[in-house]
Every structure is written in structure tokens, then in C-alpha cells.
Design goal:
Length: 336
């Protein structure tokens, strides 16, 4: 009996020792992504090497892959950008739901660890970044609210786009608009309030329902300036009917870019409050086991104008009372 117990303990110890290098490989990959590809070379004033020195021994001592991913998520939370997160494989499947994921931008066998230092205790509580984000903009929800729409009076349709993460958001919006056009709708209210943002290509597809062109540029640390067109870029949009967009202070990221592009193109009028001014562009990088690093890799800006980062998108008609915003939007449409 004793011999069997000792053999079991020895095997468990060997397995734990074998797992630690894999844990550190994942740590090195996650840490290096921020070190080399984060949009801000100064990491928002965070000493990223010091952060790595604190978290590396904690990851090495982790008891499971779940704990490894919790620690990596907490480490990304130290950036304080409300975008960058690390998702365990099951969280990534639930959160992204088939959205595109990029391979790591360096060979996976080549680690880039910071110099090891003394272990430090983990922050008390869950800490920032310890939960699955609402979107690249923070929160504590795995599931996403879905697109919805309804007819209002006077030939007006209401379109609710609560997030830009799920890859079928634009398809469902396009199907709804096509049907509403055939029914003779005369104008649209696009509700982006409380939209935490999402992925740049989903933003571009949603914009493509209402306009076509090259409204954005993405400024990154490694690739400079990259133009971002609507998707599709050519041709006529599905509708050119009057459009009013509802926004508030909780509109973030790609949703701000969507509202800002529609406004600058003269395609829509905006009603509500100035948006959050949090327009970092998130790219999802895949780890070999299906985990994902959601990394703020650039800043979204309009072509020929300053970025919305730090200042937000301003409404054409300021209405602070949320209950009165839809009514104000309908009044604008009726007056056209």
C-alpha cells in the first residue's frame, strides 16, 4: 500500500514538473506579445518587464492550466486599457464564437522571457482582467446580446446592434435591412448605446450596409498606418435612406469607429452623449491549445483626422436622458 502511494506521488510530481515548462512557454508567448506588439511602446506607463518578473514565478508554480490562464489574464489586466485580455480555450470558444483568430506573430518554439525575479504574491481578489470580457472593452459576460430590430411608426425601423464581436452580426443586419427596404421603410434608427465594440472587420461589414468607402486608418506600432475600408468597399450600400445613430458614454472601441465614420461621411446624424474615447484596435492571437490573447495592437482613427482615442465621438444632437434619446432620433427622421 505504501509503495503504491509513493509511486502515485512520484508520478504526480513528475507530471507537475513536466507541465511547468509548458506553462512557462505560454507565459513567454503572452508576455512577448505585449512587449513587441502592443500599440503603445511605453505600455501606457506600465513597467512591463517588472510585471513579467512578478508573474513568471506565479505561472511556474501554477497547479493547472486554468490557473495559468487566470494569471495571464490578470497580467494583461495590469495594462489597464479595458481591451487586452487572455482567454482560456473554453472561454475563447464561448466569447469569440467562430470569429477570426491570428497565429502568433513569432515562432512558438522561441521564447522571449523577461529576466526572472523573486516571486511576488498575487493581488488580492480576482484583480483586473480575471473574468471573460464583455468584449474587448471589459465586463464579465461570456454570452453576447444579439442583433434585433422592429418597426416603429411613420415608416421608421429601429435596429439594435449591441456588440461587434460575433461574426454574423453584419449578416443578420443586412438581411433585416434588405427585408425592410422591400417593405418601404423610409428611415432607420441604429442603436449603438452600451456597445462595447469588437473586431475591426465586423465594424467594417456593418458600416458597409449603410455606406461604402475608406473611412478609417489603423495606426499600429509594427506596421505603421493601415487603411481600413468598409466591407464591401465598392458598389452601392443596401440602403441610402436617412439614418440616425444613438450613442452614449458607454460606446467603446469599434462601435465608436462605426459611429464616427457614419458621421464624418455625412451618412448619419448622431444623437445622445459623447462616446468613451477608447478606440484601441484589438487583434485576437491564437495559442496552440485554443487559448486566445486579445491584444490592443493599434488605434482606430478617421482618415485625415486625429484619432478618437481619449476624446470620443460627439453627437450632433446632445441628449443626456436615455429615455428621451430614441424620441429625439425619431423626431429628426420625421423632419427629413
Amino acid at each position: 500500500m505504501m509503495r503504491s502511494l509513493l509511486l502515485t506521488l512520484a508520478l504526480a510530481s513528475g507530471l507537475a514538473a513536466a507541465a511547468a515548462p509548458d506553462y512557462l512557454t505560454r507565459f513567454d508567448q503572452a508576455w512577448r506579445l505585449v512587449d513587441e506588439f502592443y500599440w503603445d511602446v511605453n505600455h501606457r506607463g506600465v513597467d512591463w518587464r517588472a510585471v513579467g518578473e512578478r508573474y513568471r514565478p506565479q505561472v511556474a508554480a501554477a497547479a493547472s492550466w486554468d490557473e495559468v490562464y487566470r494569471l495571464l489574464d490578470r497580467m494583461y489586466g495590469e495594462l489597464g486599457d479595458d481591451h487586452s485580455r487572455v482567454l482560456a480555450p473554453d472561454e475563447a470558444r464561448a466569447a469569440l464564437r467562430g470569429a477570426l483568430c491570428l497565429p502568433l506573430p513569432f515562432p512558438v518554439e522561441r521564447p522571449q522571457p523577461p529576466a526572472p525575479g523573486p516571486a511576488a504574491p498575487a493581488p488580492e481578489g480576482d484583480g483586473p482582467g480575471s473574468v471573460v470580457p464583455d468584449a474587448p472593452g471589459g465586463g464579465a459576460r461570456v454570452g453576447w446580446d444579439s442583433f434585433s430590430y422592429r418597426r416603429l411608426e411613420d415608416g421608421i425601423a429601429y435596429l439594435r446592434v449591441p456588440q461587434l464581436v460575433e461574426p454574423d452580426v453584419a449578416r443578420r443586419l443586412a438581411e433585416a435591412v434588405s427585408g425592410l427596404e422591400s417593405e418601404g421603410v423610409q428611415g432607420y434608427v441604429l442603436d449603438l448605446r452600451d456597445n462595447p465594440g469588437g473586431l475591426a472587420y465586423v465594424m467594417a461589414e456593418v458600416a458597409g450596409v449603410f455606406m461604402r468607402g475608406l473611412p478609417w486608418r489603423i495606426v499600429t506600432r509594427t506596421k505603421g498606418v493601415t487603411p481600413q475600408p468598409t466591407l464591401p468597399f465598392w458598389g452601392r450600400p443596401l440602403t441610402d435612406k436617412p439614418l440616425v445613430v444613438l450613442i452614449n458614454r458607454n460606446v467603446n472601441s469599434a462601435a465608436e469607429g462605426l459611429a464616427g465614420a457614419l458621421k464624418r461621411a455625412g451618412r448619419a446624424r448622431l444623437v445622445g452623449e459623447t462616446t468613451a474615447g477608447n478606440t484601441e484596435v484589438v487583434l485576437p492571437y491564437c495559442f496552440p491549445d485554443g487559448g486566445v490573447a486579445m491584444l490592443a495592437s493599434g488605434v482606430l482613427a478617421p482618415v485625415g483626422a486625429p484619432t478618437w482615442e481619449g476624446r470620443g465621438v460627439e453627437p450632433d444632437v446632445a441628449v443626456a436622458d436615455e429615455g428621451a434619446q430614441l424620441e429625439a432620433a425619431v423626431r429628426l427622421l420625421r423632419a427629413r
